[in-house]
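debug: dumping io for the single-chain case to check the tokenizer round-trip. Nothing else runs in this session.
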Amino acid sequence: MVLNLTYSEYKAIVEFSPNMIWRSGLDANCDYFNETWLNFTGKKLNEEVGAGWLTRVHPDDMNFCMKTYLESFQIRKAFEMEYRLMRHDGLCVGLMIEGFHLRIRTENLPDKSVVVSM
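debug: decoded output
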């Protein structure tokens, strides 16, 4: 059985997923964070886009995090990594994330990469 979901249904699934989901273009600049991410960090979308999210990464994890993240973009390969991210109350919480490159061919949208934090 094939179930075709509407855009609104997909958006609701992503926004209300218990997983933190974010997306970036192939330039590695983040351009989307779901509500779960924003609630966790206590930040607004405009504060997280680009490299804004990096201000929440624990300083001891920054080099490893950036190395893993950027290398995956260079080779367009899925990746996994663990790092600590500061929650809205200042507590650093360990995350295990999986990232993958999602290629969607449309006339008006460039390829994107999607990351899911577990």
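debug: round-trip ok. Residues 62-75 form the longest helix (14 residues).
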